[in-house]
Each structure stands twice: as C-alpha cells, then as structure tokens.
Amino acid sequence: MDYSEDSLNKIRDLAGQLTPPHEIAALLDFDETEFKVDVNTPGNAARKAFLKGYSETALRLRKQNLELVDAGSPAADEACRGYIRRMIRDIDL
C-alpha cells in the first residue's frame, strides 16, 4: 500500500501512543491485513513510521524507569533488567 506523508505521520503518532496495528488500521481506514503485512515488512514506510513512534515512547519510558531506579524503585529496577535481557537477545550475546 502507498502511504501519504500525512498517513505516515498519523501512524507514527498513533504508534507513539502505543496503539496496536489493528487499531491504527481501523482508525485510519486501512485494510487491516495489508497494513499489518506492511508493518511487518522491513524497509516498508509504514513499518518505519510505526517503529519510530513506538520507539520514541519506549525510549521515554525507559528513561523514566532509569530515573526511578536511581530513586530506589524495585519495580523500575526489575523493568530495567527486562530491558537489558531484551537488548542482549536482540544482539545475540
């Protein structure tokens, strides 16, 4: 599917609000199956927009959790340990 710049910006914004792909498709009146294929296709513009929005929010949340770890939060500490485990799996260490 071809996406306009406006659609890509909306995808990025909605993904940044942690909206799952099937809901983005419904909100933006995209074919759900085609949109989900696009979001799962490396290099696709929809995937790039989705990952950018999602990643910006994930980064913000990780930063907040790191601050909470410094303040002594056990829950934030456990969340950060989960981030580390996922990072290690992602780079095959």
Describe the structure.
- With 93 residues, this protein is an all-alpha fold.
- The chain is built from 5 helices and no strands.
- Helix 4 (45-70) packs across helix 5 (74-90).
- The protein is elongated, with a radius of gyration of 16 Å.
In short:
The chain has 5 helices and no strands.
Runs in which pLDDT lies below 50 for 5 or more consecutive residues are none
| Strands, total number | 0
User: In percent, how much strand structure appears in the residues?
Assistant: under 5%
Radius of gyration (Å): 16 Å
- SSE class: mainly alpha
Count of DSSP H/I helices: 5
Largest sheet entry: none
Distance between the termini: 36 Å
Q: Which percent bin holds the helix content?
A: over 70%
Order of helices and strands: HHHHH
- Shape summary: elongated
Mean pLDDT: 95
Please supply descriptive tags for the structure shown above.
5 helices; mainly alpha
